[in-house]
Description:
Layout: H1 3-22, E1 36-38, E2 49-53, H2 56-62, E3 68-74, E4 80-84, E5 93-96, H3 97-105, E6 111-115, E7 117-118, H4 123-135, H5 144-153, H6 170-180, H7 203-206, E8 214-215, E9 219-222
Parallel strand pairs: 1-9
Antiparallel strand pairs: 2-3, 2-6, 3-4, 4-5, 6-9, 7-8
Amino acid sequence: MDETTVVLILTMFAVGYVMVRALHVPRPVPGKKHPTRLAEDVQFRPGDVILFHSNPWIQGVADGEWSHVGIVVVGNSKEPKLFDITGGNQFAAAKPFMPILEKELMQGDRVVAFRRVSPAPPTKLLCHFARDCVRKKMPYEHVYWRAGFVRLFGWAFPLDTRHGGIGAMCSSLVCDSLKACGVLDAKVESFEVLPPDFGSGDINSRLPLRPPYRWGPLTFLRMRDPSF
């Protein structure tokens, strides 16, 4: 077979494999080390990383149970906002977080969790970075599949996963936000990080923080049962 045929076969196999994975992505459930809290009881603060289980197709490529991440910013209004970027919205945005959280948790097939950085990152630096990205209309880059394919297939897809152009994807935006306020180690390649990495039990080695910052436990969120 010539090289073109081999590449075509490998690509067809990869796409088929990802589709099968997407149809069998497990729903994340709290383990013994994972606390669960009522969303209404949590006072979200700057730097909280929010994880979403909501898009099986991205989860199929992203090599894990989580498909999206964002980070909490709190400005002068004192209202927690979710700073994130999605393919649907096209540009980085900061929107009130609680309505987003309630909408997600009301859907039975969705799961939301968060990780807290302690001590809290510098609020002004985090807000400055977020405002700058929103003002410049940082675009969404559809490049998450590259890191996913490299993890899943290794040598078959020797892709450059370090650079993403002028935009960002959700996980790289969170990484760059934490770098901008001096929290995340600058050596971390933002575009090589995927949403499931923030839910990993090995997060301290995968996403090392600069002293004195440290990752908190992955904490699952739930709504209060309206029948009580």
